[in-house]
Amino acid sequence: MKLSWSAATDDKGVKNYDVLRDGATVATVTGTTYTDTGLSKGTDYSYTVRARDTGDQTGPASGAVKVRTTGTGEEPSPATRSSSATSPSGASTAATTTSTTW
Hints:
This protein is an all-beta fold. It contains no helices and ten strands. A hairpin with a 2-residue loop joins β2 and β3.
């Protein structure tokens, strides 16, 4: 599952982003993309992203992006959109895109 989002802005500067799957942090990245692997087929997931500034303060989590992986069995497959979410700024997001402006 490849996720991407627009860069956040902050008066101190943005250091990195926490990527959360179903409310739990699965990665911390410095860029604006992340590929989640090892997902189960036929499973619903919800992703949010939270920016962290250079003072180590976190911003609010983005709007959730909900996806359902296709297929059955143990091997991961491409995800399909199960619903869309709205980012905190009110812009509609695609299944693998979320907003982190704060």
